[in-house]
Design goal:
single chain, 39 strands, mainly beta
């Protein structure tokens, strides 16, 4: 594949030079305008933005991402439950999450908990398969199988107005109390500031039904109970400083999040509550600068510091003879993470249709712990990582091509025990887009991408399960797709967009956990191969009748992800089975209607049958499909410079009892009321 990338780059150079004769007559000023423009995306993103994003009946970022094709959310239930994202069955560790252009990470477990991100301050949520169709970006942007980009609201001020304020209060079922605020101020035409925060409280108690059958089909349990130890108290505050330069922009952001929540655990054998709790503190500072130094050359710098604290407490007790006695092993562990990150990227336009870029990133991660109740010595790992990305993009009008080569170096250091070997890898990628017809907005696309993911600190060094000799996971992705867009004049339908993609991915050296002699001691190993293929499709329609506007978005996904694991050449019993929690069919519908100051929104989520985390695809392990209907009604009032918006939302209208993850019941029918005042 490396040869293919080199050949492609050579052909692109030749083609660009051949095009030079046709561009000799272009004046310098015209050339500068062309160079500065953005390339049309080869791999289009799925987006939710603006009012459509705010009208979704979504409590968190994870709830909104469910409406993207190819996405599965693992939701462990309730307001405080862990929520992680999986795209095209690659696993949560292969999804990069970027906040205003910089990646959010967790070197300890490699998972970003999406439940801690509110939608209130977000302008746009975008999902890219492969990577963003932009070569002028940080090197880490090239390193994920798919990427979620979170774009916060940048302040915009009308002439003569320099201050905006927004106050919002949410209340509803499950004892929800969620006040928030946002302030914006403009110091000058070149400098503005934002500040926002919120408080979230819920007692986490909601009714659920627990029904299980025996292997023979008889009813073993059929109980209606109340979910306990699912409470949450969380606080978030953040501020951003935005500035403009001559031919450039910059911004700096500070973010702090703190939470204390119960971890209710799985419902097994009529045990409905547990004693696990988790406390989190997350601090982050990041800065970004982008500047165009000439019509052909531009550069950007970014930096981030993050400090994360996690307190995990497991103390299950029972009252015995007027005293509390521990029922099982207890833990009282505290983890402290540091993350330092720097990046520089440079782009140069060799010709108006030919651009090259170079990006270099550096990152330092450190993990300390105070693990009470565990006798094994903690490793205290440190990781030094460097990425270098060389990329090129060629635009021939109807034909667009991009190629990149990412190099990664990883060095580790430990205080105790054995460290993981140093790593160095090369990962190529190739993207092609072609528009066959001049008068029709129809685009064909293809991409290939080779990636790998490093084992996390938990994979390598966790006291009970770590294995320092683990290899990285390797994956190859192939994607073929088509996009269509049509605008209509003098018609009920004003805009139609549609896209479909067929993909194939193979993961080798997959990191899995296997049990040892003790049920409390597991071992991480590299074994297994997973092959995933599927189809993702989306259709969006905009229509209007007078002052009535309608918006509809539909998604559908078919996926087949099978485990082809062998041990010493022998096939496991699960060989060829669908991997856990992967539905064959899933989809969503979003429908919105607006009329003057009224807005109505309806959404539907469907996830088909799948199998739980057990080994084999047998009837006992099958999980029934689940679906939810949600609806909301909004009314906006305008008084002078004040805008008041009232919203009422109903979630899970049919009161379906279901599990996203087996034995972690989700809430039934619930309601939410929102009051928003802006001025």
């Amino acid at each position: 594949m490396k040869k293919c990338v080199c050949i492609f780059c050579l052909l692109a150079m030749i083609a660009a030079l051949q095009a030079q004769s046709r561009l000799d007559s272009v004046q310098l000023l015209d050339e500068a305008v062309v160079v500065a423009r953005q390339y049309k995306e080869i791999i289009p993103a799925q987006r939710l933005e603006g009012e459509q994003l705010q009208r979704l009946n979504s409590h968190s970022l994870a709830d909104a991402l469910r409406y993207f094709a190819g996405v599965q959310i693992k939701d462990y239930g309730g307001m405080g439950g862990l929520k992680t994202i999986n795209v095209r069955n690659m696993g949560s560790h292969h999804v990069g999450v970027f906040y205003d252009g910089l990646q959010i990470g967790n070197a300890q477990n490699g998972v970003v908990d999406l439940s801690r991100f509110s939608l209130d301050d977000l302008e746009e949520v975008a999902l890219y398969n492969g990577q963003k169709s932009e070569i002028f970006q940080a090197a880490k942007d090239f390193a994920s199988a798919s990427a979620v980009y979170l774009k916060t609201k940048r302040p915009v001020f009308e002439k003569g107005k320099h201050t905006h304020a927004l106050l919002r209060y949410k209340a509803g079922s499950i004892q929800l109390c969620n006040p928030s605020f946002r302030l914006e101020h403009q110091f000058s035409d070149r400098l503005s500031i934002t500040a926002g925060g919120e408080y979230l409280h819920s007692n986490g108690r909601y009714k659920f039904r627990y029904r299980r059958l025996t292997p023979g089909g008889a009813v073993a349990y059929d109980t209606t109970a109340i979910r306990r130890n699912s409470d949450i108290d969380a606080f978030r505050i953040e501020s951003g400083l935005y500035g403009t330069l001559s031919d450039g922009v910059w911004q700096a952001k500070i973010y702090y999040y703190q939470s204390d929540r119960g971890l209710p655990g799985a419902i097994v054998r009529n045990v409905f509550s547990g004693g696990e709790r988790q406390g989190d503190k997350n601090f982050m500072f990041q800065a970004f600068l982008k500047k165009e130094l000439s019509p052909r050359y531009k550069m950007q710098f970014s930096a981030k510091f993050a400090w994360d604290y996690t307190h995990y407490l497991s103390r299950d007790t029972v009252l015995f003879m007027e005293d509390y006695v521990t029922k099982k092993m207890q833990y009282d562990n505290r983890y402290y993470q540091q993350d330092w990150y720097f990046s520089t990227a440079h782009s140069y336009a060799i010709r108006p249709n030919w651009e090259v870029s170079l990006a270099v990133d550096w990152q330092y991660n450190k993990l300390n712990a105070d693990m009470r109740g565990v006798g094994t010595l903690f490793t205290f790992p440190e990781r030094y990582s460097a990425w270098g990305a060389l990329a090129t993009a060629v635009d021939f009008g109807r034909l667009k091509m991009q190629a990149s080569l990412l190099g990664t170096l990883v060095f580790e250091k430990v205080r105790y025990n054995t460290k993981s070997p140093d790593k160095h890898e090369l990962a190529p990628a190739l993207f092609v887009g072609y528009t066959p017809f001049r008068q029709t907005d129809l685009t064909l696309r293809f991409f290939y991408k080779r990636i790998f993911r490093m084992p996390t600190f938990n994979d390598l060094y966790y006291t009970q399960i770590g294995y320092s000799k683990l290899k990285p996971e390797y994956a190859s992705q192939y994607n073929f797709g088509v996009s269509y867009k049509k605008e209509f004049k003098a018609s009920f339908i004003t805009l139609l967009t549609a896209q479909a993609d067929a993909y194939y991915a193979a993961i080798t050296d997959k990191i899995i956990a296997t049990p040892t002699g003790s049920s409390f001691r597991w071992m991480m190993t590299n074994m297994g191969r997973v092959e995933s293929k599927g189809i993702d499709a989306t259709v969006a329609v905009q229509a209007a009748i007078g002052k009535v506007k309608l918006n509809t978005n539909l998604t559908y996904s078919w996926s087949k992800a099978r485990d082809f694991t062998k041990i010493n050449g022998f096939k496991l019993s699960s060989y060829g089975d669908q991997i856990p929690y992967t539905p064959w069919h899933s989809g969503s519908v979003i429908g919105g209607l607006t009329y003057k100051t009224w807005a109505v929104n309806y959404s539907f989520i469907y996830v088909g049958e799948r199998y739980n985390g057990a080994v084999n695809n047998i009837e006992r392990n099958r999980i029934e499909p689940w679906y939810t209907h949600d609806a909301s009604l909004q009314k906006t009032f305008h008084y002078w410079d004040y805008t008041l918006k009232l919203s009422a939302e109903a979630n899970n209208l049919l009161n379906q009892y279901y599990d996203v993850v087996l034995n972690y019941p989700m809430p039934g029918r619930n309601f939410r009321f929102i009051l928003t005042l802006s001025f």
